[in-house]
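Can't attach files on this board, so I'm pasting raw text. These are the components:
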Amino acid sequence: MAIRPVDGWLPLTDECLHYTEESEVPPDLKKYWHQRYSLFSWYDYDILLTHDAWFGVTPEAVANRIAEDMPSHNLSNPPKDIIVDLFAGVGGNTIAFALSGKWDRVIAIERDPATLACAQHNAAIYEIPEGVITWVLADSFDYLARVKRQQQQQVRKHELVDPALDLDFSRTVLFASPPWGGVNYRDQEIFDLNTMEPYNLETLHEACRPMEHALYLPRTSDMRQIAKLAPKGGKKIEVVQYCMEGASKAMVVYLPAEEDASNQKG
Ligand SMILES: C[S@@+](CC[C@H](N)C(=O)[O-])C[C@H]1O[C@@H](n2cnc3c(N)ncnc32)[C@H](O)[C@@H]1O
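---
Top answer:
Structure tokens for the assembled complex are below.
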């Protein structure tokens, strides 16, 4: 069966929570709850998160800045007007992409139903009109593999991916903020991206190429491993450290499309 967009609203579950009082917050989340307004400035308007989402959500100011920095219409040739958030979580980046107004299509993929239900709910809190974001409950690697197979016409058009989710590679930018394998990256002075779990750097890059893509990675990620991803032909890659209050929160690696991408149309 083809991967399709979510039809309407996924049901909120008892995993989708909003804490108003510190006494309600589990001990391992207290530190993050104290930072709730830097995660979502509209937190008090009933923003919902699952337990795990507290550890991985992109702070709002960082998400907004990334949305500004993502190459799109004016900056790239050919212009990019489709963005796919491959690990949408509770919507931190997806909401910022939608609010930026830079994209004709924002596609948000998340494989956990409760987390995606929170993201839909949170996007509504941020007054993003229904229909602006295309929500997809799926494994993003499966989705990308299907899009590529469909492009290569190994199967009949739209057999693997619904028409609403088909991609023109030359117009698409992928954004990936994967899990970072717990918090062990904090213990390493230089984070070995080959050991990142459950998806290492190579797995992520292989899944995303030949499309232009941006990878949201731990701030101490090994630059030597990142440099090896530069495509042939002298194209540069950009690495940006996103900082708040004098400290880096994460780095984003911006990787250009590879040459043959512009020949593939959706
Ligand atoms: C670090 S969080 C993303 C946070 C998100 N950027 C935000 O600001 O809310 C990673 C998310 O990826 C989801 N995930 C992990 N593997 C996935 C896969 N193969 N396909 C789709 N989603 C996946 C997890 O359920 C988790 O919600």
